[in-house]
Design a protein that fits this description.
globular; binds iron/sulfur cluster; 6-stranded parallel β-sheet; alpha/beta; two-stranded antiparallel ribbon
Length: 278
C-alpha cells in the first residue's frame, strides 16, 4: 500500500513519443502561470545515459569526488544535479524538488503515475487503438485524451480544443485544492482503521459527500479527551485548539501501535529526556 499522497496537485501528461505532450504542457503552463499559478514541471528524458553534466567540467569533478548532489549556480540559473536517476525515483521525491509551487506537471513518467490515483492524467494518443489501450491501463482521474490527429470525440484536438482542456484542468485544480484542504484536517496517519485505506481517500470521499469527518476512527475518539503539556514540571499555557491538535496527534500515533485500542479515557504520559542528561 502506498502510504503517501501528494501535498500539491500533480498532473501527468503521458503518451508515446511525438504525440504532442510538450505542446500540451507549453499551453497549460502558459495559461496557468498567467492566471497566477506557480507551476513546476518535470520531464522524463528518454535517452539512456543522458546527463546535464559534462565530463571534465568542475561540477563533474565535484561529483566524481563523491558529492551528491552537486549544485551549479550561474547569474541566470541554479542547477541541482543528483546522481541517481529514474531508478530510485518516487513521486514523493519529485515533489520535494518543487519547493512552494502550486502544482507539478509531469511529462512522461507513465510507469510512475499510470496507476496512481492521486495524479490527474492527460493522455496524448495518435490513434483510436492507443486510446483504447490507455483506457484499459489507467487508474485514477483522466482529465482528457487528446491528439494532434483529428480523431473526434471524446478525444480533444491539441490544436483546436485548448480552452476545453484548460477548463478541465482548472476544475481539477479547484477540486484538488479542496481535497487537500480536507486532508489537512484529518490526522494524516494512513492508519487504515476506517473503511478507507488512506486519509487521502477519506478526504476524497468527504469531498464527494460519501463520508464525514466523524468516519475517521482516530478523530472520533478525540473530542472526549483533553491534553496538557508540562515542560520541566511547569504547565505550558496553550489555546484549546492547540490542546486539541496535540491530543489528536499523540492519540493518533499511539492508536497505530500494535495491540493499542483507544477508548477515549486514557491518560498518556510521555517523557522526553535530553540525550546529554540521559
Ligand atoms: S481512520 Fe482517520 S487517520 Fe486512519 S486512515 Fe482513516 S481517515 Fe486516516
Amino acid at each position: 500500500m502506498n502510504s503517501w499522497s501528494p501535498t500539491i496537485p500533480v498532473i501527468a501528461v503521458i503518451g508515446y513519443k511525438k504525440t504532442g505532450k510538450t505542446t500540451v504542457i507549453e499551453g497549460l503552463v502558459r495559461k496557468l502561470t498567467e492566471t497566477g499559478y506557480a507551476v513546476a514541471t518535470a520531464k522524463h528524458i528518454d535517452h539512456k545515459g543522458f546527463t546535464m553534466d559534462r565530463e571534465g567540467k568542475d561540477t563533474w569533478r565535484h561529483r566524481v569526488s563523491g558529492a551528491n548532489p552537486v549544485i551549479g549556480v550561474s547569474d541566470v540559473e541554479t542547477a541541482v544535479i543528483y546522481k541517481d536517476g529514474l531508478g530510485g525515483l518516487t513521486l514523493r521525491r519529485l515533489i520535494r524538488f518543487t519547493l512552494e509551487k502550486d502544482l507539478l506537471i509531469l511529462e512522461g513518467f507513465s510507469k510512475l503515475v499510470l496507476e496512481d490515483e492521486t495524479v490527474g492524467k492527460i493522455i496524448c494518443v495518435r490513434t483510436l487503438e492507443e486510446y483504447k489501450e490507455f483506457r484499459k491501463r489507467i487508474r485514477g482521474e483522466t482529465l482528457a485524451f487528446c491528439s494532434l490527429e483529428p480523431l473526434g470525440k471524446p478525444i480533444l484536438s491539441i490544436r483546436d480544443d485548448t480552452s476545453a482542456l484548460i477548463e478541465r484542468v482548472s476544475n481539477y485544480l479547484e477540486k484538488m485544492k479542496a481535497i487537500l484542504e480536507i486532508r489537512s484536517s484529518l490526522p494524516n496517519l494512513d492508519c487504515g482503521k476506517c473503511r478507507y485505506r488512506r486519509c487521502w481517500e477519506m478526504a476524497k470521499a468527504i469531498y464527494d459527500g460519501k463520508a464525514k469527518f466523524d468516519d475517521c476512527t482516530v478523530l472520533k475518539v478525540g473530542p472526549r479527551l483533553k491534553s496538557r503539556i508540562m515542560l520541566n514540571g511547569a504547565e505550558v499555557p496553550i489555546q484549546p485548539f492547540v490542546s486539541e491538535i496535540v491530543r489528536r496527534t499523540v492519540l493518533g500515533m499511539i492508536s497505530t501501535l500494535k495491540g493499542v485500542k483507544i477508548t477515549g479515557d486514557e491518560r498518556v504520559h510521555i517523557e522526553i529526556t535530553s540525550p546529554r542528561t540521559a
